[in-house]
């Protein structure tokens, strides 16, 4: 249920998101997760552009639970599960808005990254404090 997710984003499924069978194509879910992740970065850190914040996605795992269709609105929830030295494990839940039907569950690993130096960097203390305060993790 979305009650456990402080950050949620509504996504109107577009016809172009669907495949020949009429349901949302598997690869499109990555863009839905991205929308939620950008909203999370805005809310927790005030980031306007992810480039300014300095992160990359190192891992994605998606479990598809039921098909979604172009006439539906989805809700994507996101929360931090774990904060490492330079990584953050994020958890997502995708539901159909009207019925609450579970559509997909996902996890990503987001890594702190210095684009100028072209290397992974540790999370600054203020980032750790903000994530811990927002999602209640330690």
> Which class of secondary structure composition applies to the elements?
alpha+beta
Estimate nothing, just give the exact number of structural domains: 1
CATH topology tier name:
Thiol Ester Dehydrase, Chain A
CATH architecture group name:
Roll
Overall mean pLDDT stands at 94
Q: What is the number of strand segments? A: 6
Uncertain runs are none
Largest sheet: 6 strands, antiparallel
Beta-strand proportion: 35-45%
The helix/strand order is EHHEEEEEH
The 3D shape can be described as globular
CATH class: Alpha Beta
Word description of this protein:
The structure is a single chain. The chain has 138 residues and is α+β, with helices and mostly antiparallel strands. The chain is built from three helices and six strands; from the N terminus they run βααβββββα. It has helices spanning 28-45, 50-53, 125-135, and strands at residues 7-12, 55-64, 73-83, 87-96, 102-114, 119-120. The longest helix is centred in the first third of the chain and has 18 residues, at 28-45. The two termini are 22 Å apart.
């Amino acid at each position: 249920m979305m009650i456990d997710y402080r950050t949620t984003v509504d996504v109107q499924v577009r016809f172009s998101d669907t495949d020949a069978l009429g349901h949302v194509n598997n690869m499109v879910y990555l863009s839905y997760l991205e929308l939620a992740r950008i909203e999370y970065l805005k809310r927790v850190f005030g980031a306007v552009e992810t480039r300014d914040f300095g992160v990359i996605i190192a891992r994605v795992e998606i479990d598809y639970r039921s098909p979604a269709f172009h006439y539906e609105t989805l809700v994507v929830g996101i929360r931090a599960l774990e904060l490492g030295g330079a990584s953050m494990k994020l958890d997502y839940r995708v539901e159909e808005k009207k019925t609450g039907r579970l559509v997909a569950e996902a996890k990503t690993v987001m890594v702190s990254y210095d684009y100028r130096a072209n290397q992974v960097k540790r999370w600054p203390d203020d980032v750790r404090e903000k994530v811990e305060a927002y999602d209640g993790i330690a």
